[in-house]
Amino acid sequence: MTVRTRIAPSPTGDPHVGTAYIALFNLCFARAQGGQFVLRIEDTDRARSTDESERMILDSLRWLGLDWDEGPDVGGPFGPYRQSERGDIYVRHARQLLEAGHAFKCYRTSEELDVLREARKAEGLQLALKPSDLALPEEEVARREREGWPYVVRMKVPSDGVCVVQDMLRGAIEVDWAQVDAQILLKSDGMPTYHLANVIDDHLMEISHVIRGEEWINSAPKHQLLYEYFGWDMPVLCHMPLLRNPDRSKLSKRKNPTSINYYRRMGYLPQAVTNYLGRMGWSMPDEREKFSLDEMMANFDIQRVSLGGPVFDLAKLTWLNGVYIREDLDDAALLAALREWAFNEAYVKQILPQVRPRVDTLSEVMPLAGHFFAGLPAIDQDSFTTVQLERETLVRLLQFLVWRLEEVSNWNKESLLVEVKGLASYFELKMKDFLAPVFIAVSGSTASTSVMDAMAILGSDMTRARLRHAIDVLGGVSKKQAKRFEKEYRDIK
């Protein structure tokens, strides 16, 4: 059997370090077994998927050295490799499940589903909805079908008993069928959910091993059942431990930068990031901490993965990055790395129009534009003394802006301006007064280039990281404040 693994990211945001982590282990397993590594784009969420996000994913994975044998940009014998281009395949297989009695059309409205869930919750029952819970009288189904009501296709699942799933690292995993709902397979717009598309694509692309995060364990029974329904052999499953924050919580952007773009923009070397991700729950036979991707692939044994939950320690990554700079880069290599990082023509060209009208001598450029070539600004609470806002209002303003910017899919000055104007109006502040603390948080000073242009150039990851840094500098947000802020923010959306 030829070993074939895959990574299947969704292009709905910034490229996540968790995606790179799973991609790394899939790549190493495939190479150690003499197999192939496939990249597939799962873009069935048409409302949130963007071409820009897909480009960032491909670019960031390549920056880390994680190359694939087949994918949307390189082709291959099992294409297309974008799920949005495989719609007819999913519809055909969904129809096959309907005809075999393994799936059913569900005409329930979202309001009806909410009532069903609330009723089960009130009775202290499992919230998973079964086919029997969703059933409508035959005449009602006929009426809704006759009137052209929208429907989804759901899979039939057992109501009781235990599903046993085999895992490479964990052995037999038991999941109670009572916890598994009648999963939607085909949405009302004709697009598949992850579960249907994932199973069909893995089979048709001849994926032999599915190495993914442990958050998918509870979905494994649905996938195993679909393989049984189709009469296909199931790939070998391996659920990797989740990356965690130092407090052992799941790695999240609220506690740690999670975008690969952030680490790239901060000046981390790709080989150091890849090396560090390789140390997440895995070790070389000789236990050394510094090793190349080629060395990892040559020595890779998935049984050396620890299930303890690897901690993503930013300080440890920074230390390792420094080791690489000092040990692996001579002056010429360091100069090349600096040019690639920020002193390249494409990046500098974005900055020049911001500084040219503001300088009289070349020596004034760096003090004015230094924030474009820096990480987190060296600011403290005193940096905000010129801002005429109470501390809690200031923190609230910055926190609301972070949340609002997390929802921006097209990162450009025009889109950012819309969000900033909306929040300025909510806070009943003039744009100048609203942007005063944002200016300091982003540029680290009270006098520099346009903050809106700076945000657009710096990008989403660095902008949000600097805003979160400013919040921390100002004392952070307590749990009590967070609850109050979140409630208020939900009400203004």
Automatic annotation (TrEMBL):
This is Glutamate--tRNA ligase. GO terms for biological process: glutamyl-tRNA aminoacylation. GO terms for cellular component: cytosol. Belongs to the class-I aminoacyl-tRNA synthetase family. Glutamate--tRNA ligase type 1 subfamily. Keywords: Aminoacyl-tRNA synthetase, ATP-binding, Cytoplasm, Ligase, Nucleotide-binding, Protein biosynthesis. It holds the Pfam family Anticodon_2. One of its GO terms (molecular function) is tRNA binding. Its EC number is 6.1.1.17. Its main location: cytoplasm. Residues 334-471 form the Aminoacyl-tRNA synthetase class I anticodon-binding domain. Gene3D superfamilies: 1.10.10.350, HUPs (3.40.50.620). A motif ('HIGH' region) lies at residues 9-19. A motif ('KMSKS' region) lies at residues 250-254. The keyword Cytoplasm applies. The keyword Protein biosynthesis applies. It catalyses: tRNA(Glu) + L-glutamate + ATP = L-glutamyl-tRNA(Glu) + AMP + diphosphate. InterPro entries: aa-tRNA-synth_I_cd-bd (IPR045462), aa-tRNA-synth_I_codon-bd_sub2 (IPR020751), aa-tRNA-synth_I_CS (IPR001412), aa_tRNA-synth_I_cd-bd_sf (IPR008925), Glu-tRNA-ligase_bac/mito (IPR004527), Glu/Gln-tRNA-synth (IPR000924), Glu/Gln-tRNA-synth_Ib_cat-dom (IPR020058), GluQ/Sye (IPR049940). Monomer. PROSITE patterns: AA_TRNA_LIGASE_I (PS00178). Residues 3-319 form the Glutamyl/glutaminyl-tRNA synthetase class Ib catalytic domain. It comes from the Bacteria. ATP binds at K253. It is found in: Cytoplasm.
